[in-house]
Amino acid sequence: MTSAEPVRPTTLRVGEVQASVLAALQLVEDARYLGSDRRPRRDRARLAAERTLATRRLARDLRAG
Fold it and tell me: Computed from CA positions of residues 41, 44, 50, 56, in that sequence, does the dihedral angle turn out positive or negative?
């Protein structure tokens, strides 16, 4: 395509619209499902600290071994 040719308009196909609507609905359902099991902040902080310790221990063991 050269710059002299006009840009062809994009047309939406029915399948694409349905797919995007289904994807949006799935995102909403996922947010509802995952949001209902929210942990208190201190629990999330504890889990993050535990993961950090485990990562550091693994790195230390890999360096030593």
Answer: negative
Tokens describing residue 57: 């221990």
Q: How far apart are CA 47 and CA 39, in angstroms?
A: 10
Residue of 57, 20, 30, 3 lying closest to 65 (CA atoms): 57
* pLDDT value of position 64: 87
pLDDT for 28-65, tens place per residue?
A: 888 777 765 666 778 888 989 999 999 999 999 989 87
CA distances from 49 to 13, 25, 42 (A): 48, 34, 10
